[in-house]
Amino acid sequence: MRLRSLRLTNFRNLRRLELELPAGVHLFIGDNAQGKTNLLEAVHFLSAMRAFRAETDAQVVGWEGLAEGSPLARLVGEVERAAGPLRIELVVTAREGAGSLQASKTVRVNGVPRRLQEAVGLFLAVLFTVEDIDLLTGPPALRRRLLDGIIAQTDHEYLLARQRLDKVLLQRNHLLRRLRERAAQPEELAFWDETLASDAAYIVWARARAVAELDRLTRETGPVLGETEELRLVYRPRLGPSASSALGGPVEGLAEGFLQDLRRGLRHEIAAGMTLLGPQRDDVEFQLAGAPVAGYASRAQQRSVALVLRLAEARYLQAVRHETPVLLLDDVLSEMDGRRRARVVEALAPYEQVFLTATDTSPFPAALLARAWVYLIFAGEVRPATSPAAP
Q1: Which one of 126, 129, 185, 202 is least enclosed by Cβ atoms within 10 Å?
Q2: Do 171 and 75 fall into the same domain?
Q3: Among residues 281, 303, 321, which one ends one of the domains?
Q4: Which of 85, 83, 1 lies closest to 43, judged by CA?
Q5: Which is it for strands 326-330 and 125-128: parallel, antiparallel or unpaired?
Q6: Is the CA virtual torsion 147, 148, 154, 158 positive or negative?
Q7: Which pTM was predicted?
Q8: What is the pLDDT at residue 98?
């Protein structure tokens, strides 16, 4: 799979951009805050249907466009894939609301309007940034979001269950608080309990399978990048005893166990005014040589682990979807020694298309520069610099 062309209008500081993108390595060079990461974010947006750095998607609409009365960003990508070509057009419109900018999004695939969730993962892209270290050391919500993003590209039912979960939790938690205030009856929970058990079981079941496969792939990928200590991923679901004993079996048994645990723990949940079990409280632990990466690994080790994780994600998507995703690697070689840089470059060979960013070309070996398309970025303007040498 590869991105054949990219058209951007008013996306952050990229006012007007048109790029034709052959297969191979594309290297974008520029100082900080010139638009390199914005470009990778735009490519990733076409895959995930959300902006990875923005609290609200309205933030991707360029401020100059807003000032000129053009409150929208347009992204158009033409994709080449085994199942046939795609043209994905995504429009983000910003508007004032509740004291801040809000956003609405529309997407067309091959000219046909589609729901956003239907477009997730049609184009496969895996993004690495230096902020990925936060996945290892930050709060559990970041790791849950990581799993959601990976699985949603391979399992549409998971995405729907994940969207329903938030709505069910909102209603159920509201009802638990009303029960605490003696303003409702316990029987009113029956519908929400059954709905929660069904969706939660599917999410936990899918996450357990995905983490098991990612764990295997990270153990295989680590040595490729020169990691001598074994990296492991351990899934930590928040389940009661009945669901825990059913984990590893069919999803129906997991749902029944989850429902039993909800009923058994009702008194505690009423006192807390919230749902205490379920995938909204899951976590994933990253271990290096048996010790948690958070708090024990050095920053250099954490950066390497984060890259191993992203390459394992790419292999996972390839195995499930039978398409090689596009790799988006932001400033990937900084803070690495020459040996590790060479290992990373070697690991890129199987991918049909790779996007790299850096402040200069010095971290990259001459062999890679000779086969790369190199671009210069300054103030949101992208200019081709060199193309691959003739064979």
Answers
A1: 185
A2: no
A3: 321
A4: 1
A5: parallel
A6: positive
A7: 0.94
A8: 66
Residue type, 367: A
Nearest-angstrom CA–CA distance, 82 and 274: 46
Q: Are 387 and 373 in contact (CB under 8 A)?
A: yes
Instruction: Show Cβ contacts of residue 42 under 8 Å, excluding neighbours closer than 6 positions.
Output: 6, 8, 11, 12, 14, 60, 75
Q: Quote the pLDDT of residue 71.
A: 86
- Rounded Cα distance between 150 and 126, Å, is 9
pLDDT tens digits, residue range 115-159?
999 999 999 999 999 999 999 999 999 999 999 999 999 999 999
Residue 390: domain span = 1-124+323-391
- Count how many Cα atoms sit within 13 Å of the Cα of residue 237 in the half-sphere of its side chain: 28
Half-sphere exposure of residue 306: CA atoms within 13 angstroms, side-chain side = 28
Q: What's the CA gap between 157 and 279, in Å, rounded?
A: 15
Nearest alpha carbon to residue 38 among 379, 384, 336, 316: 379
Residue with token string 């067309």: 108
Q: Can you give the CATH number for the domain in which 204 is found? A: 1.20.1050.90
For residues 118 and 246, state if they share a domain: no
The sheet carrying 24-29 orders its strands as: 125-128, 326-330, 353-358, 24-29, 372-378, 381-386
Q: Using DSSP, how many helices (H) and how many strands (E) does the chain show?
A: 14, 15
Cβ atoms of 71 and 65 within 8 Å: the answer is yes
Give the closest residue to 150 by CA, choosing from 321, 28, 329: 321
Taking only the tens place, the pLDDT of each residue in 4-20 is: 999 999 999 999 999 99
Q: Is the dihedral of CA 336, 338, 341, 347 positive or negative?
A: negative
SS3 137: helix
